[in-house]
Design goal:
Helix content is 16%, strand content 57%. The chain is built from two helices and eight strands; from the N terminus they run αβαβββββββ. Strands 1-2-3-4-5-6-7-8 form an eight-stranded antiparallel β-barrel. The chain starts with a helix and ends with a strand.
Length: 164
Amino acid sequence: MKCFILFLALLFSPGMYLQAQEDTPDYPGDNELKINAAYLLAGFAEITYERMLRDDSAIGISAGFALDNNIDYRFAAIPYYRLYFGKKRAAGFFVEGNANFFSERNFESDTEFGAGLGLAIGGKFINAIGWVAELFLGLGRNLVNNDNISEAYPRVGILVGKRF
């Protein structure tokens, strides 16, 4: 009888081990640090920090500043909330709601403050070791100081980063 029980335990243990591997979650970590390569190439440095709240949602903040004097946008701070619809944890297709607090140069070359709300859609991809790539596109409406600066702001990104 002891041999029979030992045989059954050995028979099912590899199957349980393989099952456990299949159910393990995606790359662990609740934080991401990313840079926006699209803006960086255009002369605007933007860094993003994102924190996962659950498997399907996250909050984050992006902060950027102009590297070139020819760019009208001088500074931007963009807090956001994302809802993910992918199979992986905090990855796949997402919808984003954001706010933007920014400074922009007006027609007289004076720097003016703006603030607004916007939406974006995009996709996030993550590999097994935690590298992240993200693409998104959106638009926001400036709600402050519309007489002197733009009425809308873009939300565009090609981001690369790491989950930790």
